[in-house]
Structures are given as C-alpha cells and as structure tokens.
C-alpha cells in the first residue's frame, strides 16, 4: 500500500501550513527531541501499516466501534452517511491513491466514507466467511476501496490514539492539519478595527497587491486570531458542509489583545525592499555549505522582533528592519557529505564516546546521515553551530562551526515519557554530586574536556547542572530510569561557535 506514507504526510502537512508556520514547526522539531521521538513512533506505525499492501484485513465490529468513537472526537462535522458509488474506478479516483488533496478525496471525505462503512457494519455485523446474495454497502466499500478505509484508519488512529503522549506543539500542528479546510468565520465576524490592522499589516509586505481578506481561524487563548487572505473566492464543499480555501496567499496573526504579531505573504505577491533582498542573497552566497537556489517562497514580518523573514525551500533568514543585518539563519536538510569533514568526524567521535562503539536504536545501527547549520547574531545569543544526526533525529550532536567543539549530544529514544508527571517524578534528586560524576564524569571529560570534580551540582527536576564560577557549565538530563539521555555545555560567555 502506498496511499499515504509518512514522508508524503509530512510533505502534505507542509503544503497546508504557511511557510512561516512550517518553518516554526520545523525548527521546533529540530530542537525538541520529544517531538522527534513522537514522529519516529508515527513513522514506525505508518510503515507497519504500509507493509500490509493490498492484504488489508477485514475490519472487526469492536475495532470499528472504537474507531467511530475516535472519529466523533475529532469533530469533523461529518454529515449523514453517504452511499458508496459502485461504479467508481478505483485505480483513477479512489483517494488520489498517492496523495491527499483539497478535492472530494480530502481527509474529511475519506473519513465520511469510512464512517458510512462503519455505520453499516454496526447495524449489520459482517464476518469474512459469511456470503450474502446482496452485499451490504459496507462490504462493497471495503472490497472496492480497501485503501480508502486504511487511510481513514491511519489518519484517525495514528493522529489521535497517541495524541496523549504527543508534545503540545506537535498536537497543535496535527490540529491544524485535521482542520485544514475549516474557515471558522469570515472577517465580517470580526471587529472592523482588527480587520483594518490586518489590512495594514499586509500592505507592509505586499504594497502593490490588492488582497481581499476572507477566512478567519480563531485560536483564542492559545495563539490568537489568524486571518487568512485569498485573492480567489472560497468555495463551499457541499458534501462536507464547510468552507474550503482555494488559496492562502497571505496570513496575519493577531493576538488576544488585538495586536498584530506577524504577517506573511507568498513571494509572488510580496513587495520586498531590494536592500534587504540583496542582504539575504549575499549572506547565502557567503555560506560555503549552501547549494540551493536562494529562491524566496514566502516573505514575512515579525512585529515583536522587528524582523523580516525570508523563507525558501531550504533556508530561513531573518533580517532586522532597523539595522539591515542578518540576525538569524537556518539551513536544514543537508547530507553529511556536504558538511566539512572535521565537523562530521567530531560528531562521529562524540557519538562513540557517548553511546559506545556500535550504538543502536530499535536494534538498528545508528548512522549519522543528516545535518543542519544554524546561525544567530545579536541581539540573540550568538551561535554558529552544526547539528549532525541520524536519519530520524534520535541522536543529535551539536558541533561548533568555527571551533569544532562538541557542545551537546542527546539520544531522543531515551527521553522521559510524556505521560510522566515531571514535578512528582523528579522532585527528589536521583543523583548526588558523587553518584552523578560516577555516572557521567568520564563521558563529560571525553566529550567536553571538563573535569567535574571541582564543580558544584545544582538539581532541577530531571536536570543536573554542574557549575563553577568563570567556567562553562555542564547540564545532564535524565529519564525515569535515571539514564542520562542528554549532555550539554553552556558557555560562560554565551557564545556557541
């Protein structure tokens, strides 16, 4: 079965979020081992489902009832069950086969059709062995569209069953994905003053484009109000009884106090000052490790930090509006073959010192394959670092780009469970200074060249930090078993390079 692999899901998710939102999510995934762990779980489950091929088992009654409960919990505004159309050509029409899109084959439509199957199933239980003169709609659906039912199961179960263990950020992104076509209100439902602010914000980044504001997705109490602008009229999907956007050319986020937080537009609509654009292009051209086109996909402005955001397929660069200087740059998705050999060698050596000669995850050898380059300049904490990692981002080793120093290493497969009550579990220290040094002293000395004997130990929940005046600090993080899954150095001068 190749209806919806993990990579395709992520690609689709990326296309449904604005570039600004996607980049923020991506940066968080790179920084948050907890989220990477959840993505790995999702990938494993998805690949296990993918391995079923066409041999999709019949769905049992109890299983269907359980899934129906999960579907109901999603509040997808599913309409009355529809009768499957017997004449549909599966090869050409069912579920777009290799991708989901915003047509009638969207997630909501698939789920609706699966619910039709499930509803019929609950009314008339069906076993694999039973034969019928007139097959039920549910049997026809399952035999005619096995992949469609499987996708419904995958989306519903994988994105909701493990949601209790997902981090809040990942859950919020999944929520956006599941509600991708929902427009909760229009701008006519808002205070006109809010709408004017949104229009003014868009003019800041798209002065020469007349955009009509339309859709609003409200996230009151968490992220404020997001106003979606479209240059084309939205259409009403009669089957789903909800508004589906045909384009999202601009996005404005306004917080609960009525203040604009950020605005972004697709590059084709943007009015970009040539000075800032040239600064961005020059910066990229100076990066020996950058091999991309430098083409801007989205242009935005952050009102809190007063920074312009240039977002491409393979970069994200922030430029301060007042100084005209690059303040933050991020170049992800690189292969280690494109990275300075000394950086890769330092990462491989650190991995051995931390995890042994032949580290494994899920009984598979750990191989460092990917890298990303991050840079920050004042007013942020100054840094110029490489993160080198395995394909799924379990192991992440941070190396200074200029110094070649190891700054941190972590094993995301050994994180504390997200179900753990951190304050209750880690309120009392597991380690004393002496026992902590016994556990990690030699590793710290090998990784960072620091002897912990003359340091003092500070404890906060699952973090153990060794401090010494005028010297870099060393922080170790543990899980419920007392295993140190992460070690990092905190520079005394605040500079990571």
Automatic annotation (TrEMBL):
Domain Putative zinc-finger: 8-36
InterPro entries for this protein: Anti_sigma_zinc_sf (IPR041916), Znf_put (IPR027383)
Family membership: Belongs to the zinc-associated anti-sigma factor (ZAS) superfamily. Anti-sigma-W factor family.
Protein's name in the database: Anti-sigma-W factor RsiW
